[in-house]
Write a structure and sequence with these properties.
By secondary structure, the protein is an alpha+beta fold. The protein contains 26 helices and 20 strands.
């Protein structure tokens, strides 16, 4: 079971689905309760109770926020995918069903439990304590009464109570759990050998009659897929760069504000003598500093001795004034400006800062600096693109609206935004998905709405800052290929089929001999590796699917299969060890993971049982586009 769960929990989308389905009634966060504006159209009804578009949209946004808070990069196309939409809706349906069930069986959350939960919610904390004022303001801003909000929270706590109760029912006898964990955390030493079909192709002969017979029997396979030629309008941030400008003043302002980041990795090593004027006569302090400066200039080698004797910076005075190495932004501005304008071994004039009068000696320079003139072209280009991005964001909604509202042509949107309409060559659905790097757009292109009704597609953001709408200008239906076009390919297919058959027979014969303990010469086994269920050590998925299915009671143990590369692969297990060993901490962690997996299965089964008992209607026209 751990394998099954691990298999379905790889990648951010799978994790999002797991969160929404496997444990679908965990608290979604305050946004689910506070954002109630509009969107009352139902995406589904559960036993007569509606799930609104607004609630569905909130849940999609919560998935995005959760993933971003975990530091994961969120793919916008995946967030808009039918799979995620369906998964989110399944989660909401299950929450409704569980809510109804807990009310039916009279689950209760006391006023004290409810109060303690709300008092601890981070949304209402100020300086580490619950703020009644913040609580009331938040509810007012979102047009919610305390009663309505607290009722929602109470209901969620009851569903949480149900979830926890189901999870506690999950149980496996200790012997069964231990056996499962030992198997789940095994390490196996493995090697493989391939019997490759490609090695037998040269010895196979295919007659023209066999090729013709194959063509006659499989004509339906030899077709040119349906194709479309598309006219498209592209609104992009890159295309808007010519419509924005950046002044030299803006570039300088940006450079000054980000000097520490832009001016390279240059470090300066300096020493100073500080004569402070805090609490004493400033003129007297300056006179003393000038006297010391005169001594330094007369004998630069006395700098360290004079720093020890006179400097009022206790941190550096004992080191002869040495401040070590530092970059821009580390010192007060007057001091920094002076140091970064000096040459090595140069002694400065008096430099006044908020701390007093400094006499500075530059001891060394490391790294490289970038001046304003050097950075100016790069900064200007970056600022232009930032403005173009902002303009793109500003125009995107208008672009989408015009494409939709004037769906008989792309000319209006082209004129409005001064765009050059472009045309693709004839493309299949797969070719178009590669061309635009977007499956959703090509699904729309072949939809009845775009293909048959001759309307513009919806505007689709095919990649960040690139919005595209298409319309069909030419369509070619699916058509059969001639025999001459495909005969060479058929011959290759038939040869490969025969080669695979020979390789399989040879591989199975070799496997039988190895299992019987016979010696088989000429096998080139790869160097053995030790694998576990998480670390394949370079072995293919096909091999890993076999490794832990092999009965390893007697070693060496073998299995064989034909892989996707048309090779018969023989897998040999040489040794088995228990990865957990005697590490009690590792054992406890593994036991906890096993218990959590078991609990998740119980919860999933409970949700499925509730769904089977109720009438659930999904409004697919609202949830999905026509293309989806």
């Amino acid at each position: 079971m751990l394998d099954a769960i691990r298999k379905h929990t790889q990648g951010w989308l799978a994790k999002a689905i797991l969160a929404l389905i496997t444990i679908p009634f965990a608290l979604f966060g305050i946004d689910s309760y506070l954002n109630q504006a509009g969107g009352n159209v139902a995406v589904a009804t559960v036993a007569g109770e509606k799930i609104s578009v607004q609630e569905f949209s909130n849940s999609i946004e919560n998935v995005r926020n959760r993933l971003q808070s975990e530091g994961q990069k969120v793919d916008v196309a995946l967030l808009d995918s039918p799979e995620l939409k369906q998964s989110v809706l399944d989660g909401l349906i299950t929450r409704r069903l569980v809510s109804k069930e807990v009310q039916r069986v009279h689950f209760k959350i006391s006023d004290d439990q409810l109060n303690q939960h709300i008092l601890g919610m981070p949304e209402f904390q100020e300086n580490g304590k619950f703020s009644e004022d913040l609580y009331q303001k938040t509810l007012q801003q979102n047009k919610l009464t305390a009663a309505k909000f607290e009722s929602s929270i109470r209901n969620d706590l009851m569903t949480q109570q149900a979830r926890d109760g189901i999870a506690k029912l999950a149980f496996a006898p200790k012997a069964v759990a231990e056996k499962a964990l030992q198997f789940a955390f095994q390490q196996r030493e493995v090697t493989t050998v391939d019997v490759k079909a490609a090695e037998f192709i040269a010895q196979i002969k295919i007659t023209p009659e066999q090729v013709k017979e194959y063509y006659a029997l499989h004509k339906d396979k030899f077709k040119v897929p349906e194709q479309v030629k598309l006219e498209f309008a592209l609104l992009s941030a890159a295309g808007l760069m010519g419509q924005v400008s950046v002044s030299d003043e803006e570039v300088k302002e940006f450079y000054d504000a980000n000097a520490a980041k832009l001016q390279g990795d240059e470090q300066r090593q300096a020493s100073h003598i500080l004569i402070g004027f805090s609490g004493q006569d400033k003129a007297a302090a300056k006179e003393k500093a000038l006297d010391i400066l005169a001594q330094v200039k007369k004998n630069p080698k006395s700098f360290e001795e004079l720093a020890i004797k006179y400097s009022q910076d206790t941190g550096s005075a004992t080191k002869g004034g040495d401040l070590g190495s530092f970059g821009r932004g580390a010192m007060v501005k007057p001091f920094e400006d002076a140091v970064f304008s000096m040459k090595v071994n140069q002694i400065s004039e008096l430099v006044e800062s908020e701390f007093g009068y400094h006499i500075i000696k530059l001891n060394g320079v490391t790294g490289e600096s970038s001046s304003f003139d050097q950075m100016k072209p790069q900064i200007k280009a970056e600022l232009i693109f930032q403005k173009a991005q902002a303009k793109y964001a500003e125009l995107s909604e208008d672009f989408s609206n015009i494409v939709y509202e004037q769906s008989a042509s792309l000319d209006p949107v082209a004129k409005k935004f001064n765009l050059q309409l472009q045309t693709t060559p004839l493309m299949s659905r797969a070719d178009g998905a590669k061309f635009f790097k977007n499956d959703k757009l090509m699904t729309m292109a072949f939809s009845d709405e775009v293909l048959k009704e001759k309307r513009n597609s919806e505007a689709v953001e095919v990649s960040p800052n690139n919005l595209v709408a298409v319309r069909v200008v030419e369509y070619k239906p699916e058509a059969p290929r001639s025999f001459e076009e495909v005969k060479s390919g058929i011959e290759s297919v038939l040869k490969l089929e025969q080669a695979v058959k020979i390789a399989t027979e040879k591989g199975e014969d070799t496997l039988t001999k190895l299992k019987s303990g016979d010696s088989v010469k000429g096998l080139e086994w790869i160097p053995s590796v030790v694998v576990d269920r998480k670390n394949a050590q370079g072995l293919s998925n096909g091999v890993m699917n076999q490794v832990f299915k092999i009965n390893a009671d007697q070693l060496p143990a073998y299995a064989g299969f034909m892989d996707e590369n048309k090779s018969y692969v023989i897998v040999k297990v040489l040794g088995v060890t228990n990865q957990l060993g005697d590490d009690e901490d590792a054992k406890q962690t593994a036991e906890s993971d096993y218990q959590a997996a078991l609990a998740a299965e119980y919860i999933s089964a409970y949700a499925a049982s509730l769904k089977s008992k109720e009438d659930i209607q999904v409004n697919t026209s609202v949830l999905f586009s026509k293309a989806e």
